[in-house]
Amino acid sequence: MVENRPITTFCSHAVLICGIAIVVFPIWITFVAASHDAVRMTQTPLPLLPGDQFFVNLKDTFIKGVGNAREQSVGLMLMNSLIMAMMIAVGKIFISLLSAFAIVYFRFPFRMGFFWMIFVTLMLPVEVRILPTFEVVANLGMLNNYWGLSIPLIASATATFMFRQVFLTVPDELLEAARIDGAGPMRFFKDILVPVSRTNIAALFVILFIYGWNQYLWPLLITTDKNMYTIVMGIKQMLEAAEESPEWHLIMMTTLLAMLPPVAVVVGMQKLFIKGLTETEK
Amino acid sequence: MLKRTHFNPSPLPYLLVTPQILITIIFFIWPASQAVFQSLLVEDAFGLKTEFVWFDNFIELFSDQIYFNSFGKTIVFSSLVAFLSLGTALILAATADRIVRGATTYRTLLIWPYAVAPVVAGTLWMFIFDPTLGIVAYMLDMMGYDWNHRLNGNQAMALIIFAASWKQISYNFLFFLAGMQAIPKSLTEAAAIDGAGPAWRFWTIIFPLLSPTTFFLLVMNIVYAFFETFGIVHAVTKGGPAGATEIMVYKVYNDGFIGLDLGGSAAQSVVLMVIVITLTVIQFRYIERKVEY
Known about the structure:
The structure holds two protein chains of two kinds. Chain A has helices at about 5-35, 55-65, 75-105, 110-120, 130-140, 145-150, 155-170, 170-180, 185-195, 200-215, 215-220, 230-240, 250-270, 270-280. Chain A is an all-alpha fold. Chain B is an all-alpha fold. Chain B starts with 11 loop residues before the first helix and ends with a helix.
């Protein structure tokens, strides 16, 4: 703050509060919709204040299920999302750590060739190559399982770049000291490099978890088995299954549940989240 | 690029890069080259034989009025999303940068839409604008404005623009705020001593110094609007009504998986790849130059 102007400060707060109101409004409506019963949700105007059915709806969502396809359980979908997100996040971090380690700490033929091969993946989001990638996955027999859900999304240039950047800032003296003490490459990697970059790993994990949890197009294509549905695509299926009279109170409850884990991660680990976001993108 | 000291040559580095390289080849490079190859083929109606047709698929694509429209819609969509979310985020970041008390609370409340999946964002906005039940549609109706995005193409487009921009505000906000906090306070203080008010300081000092961030975000927002909004379109409009919101990334999916026009879809994939590669190259050239200012 450069000068003290009460009026400007007041206006600043007002602008921010307006901004927050816009940002929060859709979620508030969702929350309100999730706390009323089915009858209330068919009468216009819809309520703007929460009702008292929140926990009843929560119970119904988990026990009875939503939409025509009542056999698909919300609990199972949440579980699938969690497994997929964890596999993507852990897998990406693991393979990126290894390849960044190789690229930074070793001099070997085709090093730059590998580096460029990884770099290329930055330019090929799944959306632009969906059909052939789908064929590959189908031929490998990876439809309808967790491997097919996660592995094609695992290769990531951004994570490798980030670790490369981090490793380059690790002082060379550490490596020299480790070598004098007789540590081999993997020992150095495990006992020095990984512990040194643990905050970066955590920051990246936050970003990748959100990325994995929010995948939509890919699970939509490769899962036909209801037991493999993820929560994010499950919402869409619910909307479609109930085209005529959607049970908005239950659908909105499911939407809340689908948003909750990644939002909790962002809010709870805000520092790591911001670190991860600014480091991987730049 | 490389450390001064290395480990001795051994087969170990090959072992270390193997997992990533294998996945890259199997799931990225191979499918992408398949897309390029398929874009040069035509398959007959029964899928029995394929014929190599060179660039016929592309010629057909570029002379297709529908594809041309889809291209135009993508441009309108992505530029409006970028403008709307960048503008809102800039205003919010500029005010948040001024504030001392409660800054963390404001930030927390503004950043979380980043974590909402595009398709979930689409569902939320579809619900509040639902023509029969939606709360905003109801208010608009009270004001005498008839809202039905299921019938009106422009309204459908507006709705997906709102949903896509809403989700992107937090991302832009964080980067703008970080950029502003990196500007030395002495500059704005000097200007304040010379009698420049907050708005004037913003336009003459902060905004110009922020231009690298703005440019970076512009590219990122275009990439976002081009490729990551599939879920929003799929949840809200499915490209309708009558193709009014069929942006390119949705059309690839629709023609490939629903229409089963493999050659045409592959040709569209190749066009999209060229766009991503161009954007990535622009992005990287900018990163190299950024250090100078």
